[in-house]
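Weekly sync, protein design subgroup
Attendees: M.S., D.O., the rotation student, P.L. (late)

Item 1: inverse folding check
M.S. brought a backbone from last month's batch and wanted to see whether the design step gives back something sensible before we order anything. D.O. pointed out we never logged the input encoding, so this time it goes straight into the notes. C-alpha cells as presented (338 positions):
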C-alpha cells in the first residue's frame, strides 16, 4: 500500500464541518470583494468552517492579501506553491489540506456565485455526496471557446469511459468520502472534471448562471485550453491510440486492392508509366498519417514519462494557519514518496 493510500485513510485531526477551497493565481484585485462576500456567508451557513486559499505561485499581492486576512480571521488559511502549478493541481492541494466533512471548490474571481453554497449544503444534508454547479449558459465565454467546448464534450462522450455531465465544472461540494476518493488519484496530468465523473457517488447538479469576472481576465488562453482538452481525453481514453490499428488495417486493405489492380492492369495493358501525381500525393498523404499517429503515441509516452518520474504533485513554499506536524503527515503527496 502506498503512503498516499495510507494517508488518505487517516482520521483527520480537528475536523470541521465545511471547507471552502479557492485556487488563486494573481487574484489580488478580486480578493477584497471575494472575502467581503464569502466570510459573512460562511458564518451564516456553518458554525465550524475554514477557508483555504491555494496561492498558485501568484506574482502579485495575492499571498500578502491572504496573509492579512488570516491575521484578522484565523479560519482563513493558505497553502502557497513554490511556483505556478496550474489550477488542477491547486485544487488537489486544496483537497489535501481541507479538513471539512464537506468541501466546496470555488473560483476566486466570483464567477461562481458563493450564495449557491447554501443550496449545495442543503442537498448535502439530504444525503448527496457530490453537488455540482451546472452552468446554464456560457455567455461569458467567446464563441470560439464555446464551439471548442462543445466539440470537446462530444469527443469525450464518445471516447471516454465516463461521460461528463453537461456544464459541470469545478464549482462543487464534495462529501468527505468523495474528497478521500479524489485524493487517492495521484496522476500528474490531472483532469478534474473527468476525475469527478470517474469517482461516481450520489450526485446532483444545481443550475447556475456564470457571472462576469470582476477584475482581470481568464488565465485559460486558447492554447492552454487545447492542451487541457488533450490531457482530458488522453487521461480517460485509449481510443486515440487504438484508432491507428483500424486506420492501418483499412489502409493496408486498400493498398492490397490497389496492388491487385496494378498487377492485373499491367498483365492486360502492359506497363503504364505515368502516375507521378498519384505517387507523390499518396506518399505525402501516408507520410502525414504516419507522423500523426507517431505524434499521438508520443503524447501518451510523454504522459507515461511524467507519471513514472513520480515527482511530487506540487511543492509548497509557505503555509499559513496549519499545524506543521499534522500537515507534514497528511500532505504526503507534496513530499517525495519513499
Ligand atoms: N487559477 C489557478 N492557477 C492557474 C490558473 C487559474 O489557480 O494557473 C485559478 C484562478 O485564480 C481562478 C480559477 O483558477 O480562481 C479559474 O481561473 P480563470 O478565471 O482564469 O478561468 P475561467 O474562469 O476562464 O475558466
Ligand atoms: Mg474565471
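Designed sequence read out in the meeting:
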Amino acid at each position: 500500500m502506498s503512503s498516499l493510500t495510507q494517508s488518505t485513510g487517516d482520521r483527520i485531526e480537528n475536523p470541521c464541518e465545511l471547507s471552502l477551497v479557492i485556487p488563486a493565481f494573481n487574484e489580488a484585485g478580486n480578493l477584497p470583494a471575494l472575502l467581503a462576500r464569502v466570510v459573512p456567508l460562511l458564518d451564516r451557513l456553518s458554525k465550524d468552517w475554514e477557508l483555504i486559499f491555494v496561492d498558485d505561485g501568484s506574482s502579485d499581492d495575492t499571498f500578502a492579501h491572504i496573509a492579512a486576512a488570516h491575521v484578522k480571521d484565523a479560519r482563513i488559511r493558505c497553502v502557497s506553491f513554490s511556483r505556478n502549478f496550474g489550477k488542477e493541481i491547486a485544487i488537489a492541494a486544496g483537497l489535501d489540506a481541507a479538513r471539512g466533512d464537506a468541501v466546496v471548490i470555488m473560483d476566486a474571481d466570483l464567477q461562481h456565485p458563493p450564495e449557491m453554497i447554501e443550496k449545495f449544503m442543503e442537498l448535502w444534508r439530504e444525503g448527496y455526496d457530490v453537488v455540482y454547479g451546472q452552468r446554464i449558459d456560457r455567455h461569458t465565454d467567446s464563441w470560439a471557446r464555446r464551439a471548442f467546448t462543445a466539440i470537446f464534450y462530444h469527443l469525450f462522450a464518445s471516447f471516454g469511459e465516463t461521460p461528463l455531465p453537461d456544464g459541470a465544472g469545478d464549482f462543487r461540494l464534495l462529501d468527505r468520502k468523495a474528497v478521500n476518493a479524489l485524493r487517492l488519484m495521484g496522476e500528474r496530468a490531472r483532469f478534474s472534471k473527468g476525475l469527478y465523473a470517474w469517482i461516481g457517488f450520489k450526485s446532483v447538479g444545481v443550475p447556475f448562471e456564470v457571472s462576469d469576472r470582476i477584475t482581470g481576465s481568464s488565465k485559460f488562453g486558447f492554447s492552454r485550453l487545447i492542451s487541457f482538452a488533450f490531457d482530458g481525453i488522453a487521461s480517460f481514453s485509449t481510443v486515440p491510440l487504438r484508432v491507428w490499428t483500424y486506420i492501418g488495417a483499412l489502409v493496408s486493405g486498400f493498398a492490397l486492392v490497389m496492388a491487385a489492380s496494378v498487377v492485373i492492369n499491367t498483365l492486360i495493358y502492359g506497363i503504364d508509366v505515368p502516375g507521378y501525381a498519384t505517387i507523390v500525393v499518396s506518399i505525402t498523404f501516408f507520410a502525414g498519417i504516419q507522423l500523426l499517429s507517431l505524434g499521438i503515441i508520443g503524447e501518451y509516452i510523454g504522459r507515461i514519462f511524467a507519471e513514472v518520474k513520480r515527482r511530487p504533485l506540487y511543492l509548497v513554499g509557505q503555509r499559513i494557519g496549519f499545524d506543521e506536524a499534522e500537515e507534514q503527515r497528511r500532505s504526503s503527496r507534496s513530499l517525495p514518496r519513499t
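Discussion: Residues 1-9 have pLDDT under 50 and may be disordered. The pocket of uridine-5'-diphosphate (ligand 1) is lined by residues 23-25, 27, 56, 84, 86-87, 90, 107-109, 111, 218-220 (CB under 6 Å).
Action: P.L. to compare against the previous round before Friday.
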